[in-house]
Design brief:
CATH architecture: Alpha-Beta Barrel
Helix content: 40-55%
CATH superfamily: Aldolase class I
CATH topology: TIM Barrel
Distance between the termini: 45 Å
Number of helices: 13
Number of domains: 1
Structural class: alpha/beta
Number of strands: 13
Strand content: 15-25%
Strand order of the largest sheet: 3-4-6-7-8-9-12-13
Bound molecules: flavin mononucleotide
């Protein structure tokens, strides 16, 4: 038997398959199912900034007119979403699987305070789901990244928990952003989130929801960036998007991932797929005489390659594709 155990964000995992933040991990029941299925860790569904902010602003306007209501709101409505989230963290801890909490952190200074409460509730790490959609033509890419780094630094100052940052693909320089996050005290990067997509309903000439789940061919961009960033800074890299089987997990680990996150494939096939992925990984490692996941990690990253330039090719050329 190959050794599937690994370390991610300073946590020892029994295997590198992490259930990604989603409705799958939005309840203690879901976390128990993930634990029973043998997941290496779970990332709880994110608490979204809008939830926190809406609750806080409605409570604040009421407090302006009724200052004595403060104690009441502290106990009751004001932090209901936050309180329910902390209950989810507390209920999930001790279920036999490491628990990583997640918040959709896009700039409110309230997250710093909340991060400290997540730490108290017993989570072992915190994933910051940082998604900025730049809508203002007057704002530069550098300014968007500065906002992200500022939000990160506020949370970093508020908690000792290991922090990972989950990003989308659209940054001008991921290596620089990763280096800055590392410098500011991040322990991990999750590459990549797969955001809500919309489509166009031609009949109604309006937008409608697009496909929610990834497919098994959606991992290539993740693979590219894991391979390019692995070993460049002291961050654990978690590969996310399009991980649907053990073979893909192995490829991403060989590229340098310390863990892989799975979501769509569990929605599609159930939690049992985690065991299948682990068995496939074990068999392949055994067939290659590679004793462990740790021994595979990073073997095909750019940093360890004899021909690093091959990783930087972006254009289709006949010599590579065979297509003219
Ligand atoms: C229904 C659904 C809910 C999700 N909710 C969250 C969330 O709360 N926080 C988050 O960071 N990502 C969320 N995600 C993104 C997933 O965690 C994951 O990064 C993405 O789906 C890519 O992985 P996959 O290809 O295995 O699905 C959600 C995805 C789905 C499909």
């Amino acid at each position: 038997m190959a050794e599937l155990g690994c370390s991610y964000l300073g946590i020892e995992l029994r295997n590198p398959i992490v259930v990604a933040a989603s409705g799958l991990t939005g309840s203690v029941e879901g976390v128990k199912k993930a634990a029973a299925a043998g997941a290496g860790a779970v990332v709880l569904k994110s608490l979204f900034e809008e939830q926190l902010r809406a609750e806080i602003s409605s409570a604040e306007s009421l407090l302006d007119s009724h200052p004595e209501a403060e104690a009441f709101f502290e106990r009751a409505g004001m932090e209901e979403g936050a309180r329910a989230y902390l209950d989810l963290v507390k209920g999930s801890v001790g279920q036999g699987v490491p628990v990583i909490a997640s918040v959709n952190c896009v700039g409110s200074s309230r997250w710093a305070e909340f991060a400290a409460r997540i730490e108290e509730a017993g989570a072992q790490a915190l994933e910051l789901n940082m998604a900025f959609l730049p809508a203002n033509p007057g704002e530069t890419g550098a300014s968007v990244e500065a906002r992200l780094l500022e939000a990160f630094a506020e949370v970093r100052a508020a908690t000792k928990l290991p922090l990972s940052v989950k990003l989308g693909q659209s940054y001008a320089s991921l290596p620089n952003l990763g280096a800055e996050l590392s410098r500011l005290g991040a322990q991990g990067l999750v590459l990549f989130n797969r955001f809500y997509r919309f489509d166009v309903d031609l009949q109604a000439l309006a937008i409608k929801a697009g496909p929610v789940r990834s497919g098994p061919e959606d991992y290539h961009e993740t693979l590219r960036w894991i391979a390019l960033l692995s070993g460049r800074f002291p961050l654990d890299l978690a590969a996310a998007t399009g991980v649907h089987d053990g073979e893909t997990a192995l490829k991403l680990i060989a590229a340098g991932a310390g863990a892989v996150q799975v979501c769509s494939v569990i929605y599609r096939r159930g939690f049992g797929v985690i065991g299948e992925m682990c068995r496939a990984m074990d068999e392949w490692l055994g067939s290659k005489g590679i004793p462990s996941v740790r021994a595979l990690k990073g073997r095909v990253s750019q940093a360890s390659a004899a021909d690093p330039a091959a990783y930087a090719r972006l254009q289709y050329i006949q010599a590579l594709t065979g297509i003219s």
